[in-house]
Amino acid sequence: xxxxxxxxxxxxxxxxxxxxxxxxxxxxxxxxxxxxxxxxxxxxxxxxxxxxxxxxxxxxxxxxxxxxxxxxxxxxxxxxxxxxxxxxxxxxxxxxxxxxxxxxxxxxxxxxxxxxxxxxxxxxxxxxxxxxxxxxxxxxxxxxxxxxxxxxxxxxxxxxxxxxxxxxxxxxxxxxxxxxxxxxxxxxxxxxxxxxxxxxxxxxxxxxxxxxxxxxxxxxxxxxxxxxxxxxxxxxxxxxxxxxxxxxxxxxxxxxxxxxxxxxxxxxxxxxxxxxxxxxxxxxxxxxxxxxxxxxxxxxxxxxxxxxxxxxxxxxxxxxxxxxxxxxxxxxxxxxxxxxxxxxxxxxxxxxxxxxxxxxxxxxxxxxxxxxxxxxxxxxxxxxxxxxx
Length: 389
Fold this sequence. Notes:
Elements: E1 8-10, E2 16-22, E3 27-34, E4 38-46, H1 52-56, E5 64-68, E6 72-73, E7 102-104, E8 107-108, E9 111-113, H2 121-127, E10 131-134, H3 138-148, E11 151-158, H4 164-173, H5 183-186, E12 192-194, E13 200-205, H6 210-218, E14 222-227, H7 232-236, E15 242-245, H8 256-267, E16 272-275, H9 277-285, E17 290-306, E18 311-323, E19 333-339, E20 345-350, E21 355-358, H10 373-382
Parallel strand pairs: 4-5, 5-7, 6-8, 7-10, 13-14, 13-15, 15-16, 16-21
Antiparallel strand pairs: 1-9, 2-3, 2-11, 3-10, 4-11, 12-14, 17-18, 17-19, 19-20, 20-21
């Protein structure tokens, strides 16, 4: 029997000076790792136990400094970023780069070991010019964000001592998360095609995760990924069987062009699935309103109930905005999924049209297959008799 040696790598870009400053004046001193630089962004937290490579490359984290609540991070390192599946989609990442502006952890594992290891976490951050900080009380930071709400923060990593007062001054002048325009950063500029076949599904890219593309491909459709501001006329030129409005960062009201396209999709009764930001955009297009959650839903263990059959599902989520449940009453949408913890809207269905949307991420599969049926629901809307649940 041949025994394969499991790769082991040591951290190369750790043990630097690090400082995290929140806009309320709170300061966390720690050890910097990754790339030496200063960044500004909205401080948020994710309660997942694993999946830091997927989280960091999720475009929904654009403009944010991500805190991981699990105490030990980096022990299994990072897989090969260049590995792709037969359709040319990156195997282990949700986009082609790290999207979060910075990373905050309690303890960085200085040794990484895994059969699929290509580099350490600190090495990956260094290569992509992203700063990280370890050695801080992430429980205290998370408690503060839960109590006070998410807020702007500055993260500095340096080879030398960091001037705290200077960092606070820079943070006061930094652009607010709510003022940023994300679509030109996270969306493709030109259409991209994945796979082959006569029947296709168009994905409107407002920050789409690779797993969404992969799951639509697994339904059997060719995927055409188009920019966030593509008109319905251009979308229909591909003669798609259905449309997916993707996840993404920021306030949905800033996606006015996508919202107009969504309104036309509803009017023309084109089979459409909205995911996360896409759900909010569909809701707005149909007459609902949205609001910002105090600290958002970010993690892999968010329970939601399907009101069609009272089945509870464990879902993966990453969003800071939500549909107002009261506003649903004056629309043609009905509540489909509800969050069991705070009763927020987790899914909607149109009462007459072939339009569905979920706030959680069915492609993330924390179960690992809990919510894959949502994609089959799109297939049913399209009219495929072989759709299953």
